[in-house]
Amino acid sequence: MTYGKDMTYGMDGRDGAYGTDTPYGTDAAYGTDATHGDAAYAPGPGGYADGFPEDAVHLGGARFQSDPTALYRELRRDHGAVAPVRLDGGLPAWLVLGYRELHLVTADSALFSRDPARWNQWPRVPADWPLAPMIGRNQNSVLHTVGQHHRERAGVIAEALESVDPFVLKRYAEEYADDLIDGFCAFGRTELISQYATLLPVRVLARVYGFPDEEGPYIVKALNDLTDSGENALAGQRCLSESVAALVREKHVTGGHDVLSRMLRNPYGFTDEEVVQDLMVMMVAGHQPTADWIGNSLRLMFTDDRFTVSLSGGRHSVPEAMNEVLWEDTPSQNVAGRWATADTTLGNRRVHEGDMLILGVAAANYDPQVRTDSYTLTGGNNAFFSFGHGEHRCPFPAQEISEVVARAAIEVLLDRLPDIELAVPATSLNWRRSPWQRGLAALPVRYTPAPPYGRA
What residues contact residue 370 under an 8 Å CB cut-off, 6+ apart? Predict the structure, then answer.
């Protein structure tokens, strides 16, 4: 059986711009003629909301990719710990920049709900809004449930993921890493994002989740399109949903000991639709951030003086680099979101009931009250927000799976190609355009050609 092969998603990973040049910005025409009803902000000229600060920054603009650290510093200087931003179409939201404020928002699920149905801007959102898959008004997933129902679903996911043997997981990751490296090791040059980082995590996850091994590569582009929130986001979401639904139907018949089969045997009687939505969340959260963790860590090791000296010394610098990336270039830059359940004040900002709050994970990690010296290594400190916080944080087993896969990918690459180095000036590297994720568009490298390992 095949999943998604009749869609427009192939096995070639990132062949194409993946939203890096799509014209979504403050000039988009979304919502200019909509009405709010009793929403907190009424539409104004140009599609922007009257009553919302005029100097709100467009979330996902070029500087969020080119120089986010400086941008967050400027936003904190001009607005404090909570800054006004606009989403595509001029829809208003608050970007939580402060570490303390982000901790408060993620810890208080009563005042800051995870339920997107509370958003006071839905009347202005068009059917083809490209950010819809990441906001999730009509998605019945674990991300958007609250209370006891959320705890039950999160518990089922955590228990299913805990069943993954870390030694087996590492073996899968190393096998797939060797297979991918065999494809380019003899050439002396390659591009690591499209040929390696974006192909490895989904193949490993597909196997442990229960997809037939050969189906893994077919969902790579769907996942990338969805998380980049570009013009192909809705198509990517549909493709992934159809693939997961087909697998759920099959697992009802065949069963197994994989993650999905364990989820289907839950004691709460969750519907197939609920399981489909939850597995989609697990795939999105497990694939792209892990791929970006690999790419961002390798970039750091190739370009940062703190790591280039130790790179030739072997593996001892890999975990350190991976931890630094979660502070300095975390894959999950901004997370949507939380919604205020009542009028409140946060960071000296008046937040209305129904307002959206974007979790500025990267900005909070760089809060000068927390990181007084951003150049000094954190020494293993893992108090970052990169995996979330509070009731809706990433489950610990999922975090461990991501770490095993990312570390195996980096270590195998360095073992196989020990003199690998950046093939272009570091300043020429470009970041993929996404308001949510931070990952390289390309990472060209060179190395001494090596023979294929030939594991298969």
Answer: 99, 364, 383
Asked whether residue 5 carries a pLDDT value surpassing 50, the answer given is no
Beta bridge partners of 345: 350
Long-range CB contact pairs, 175-183, < 8 A, 24+: 175/455, 176/200, 176/203, 176/204, 177/408, 177/409, 177/412, 177/413, 178/412, 178/416, 178/453, 178/455, 179/455, 179/456, 181/412, 181/413, 181/416, 181/417, 181/453, 182/452, 182/453, 182/454, 182/455, 182/456
Compute how many other C-beta atoms are within 10 angstroms of the C-beta atom of residue 426. Answer: 10
Which helix (H) or strand (E) segment is 320 a member of?
A: helix 318-328
User: Does the pTM exceed 0.85?
Assistant: no
Angle between helices 200-209 and 396-416 (to 10 degrees): 130
* Structure token digits, residue 390: 């509070």
Going by DSSP bridges, is the β-strand pair 356-360/91-96 parallel, antiparallel, or unpaired?
Answer: parallel
Give me 23's structure tokens.
Answer: 């014209």
**Residue in 234, 207, 239 with CA at minimum distance from that of residue 125:** 234
The pLDDT value given to residue 380? 56
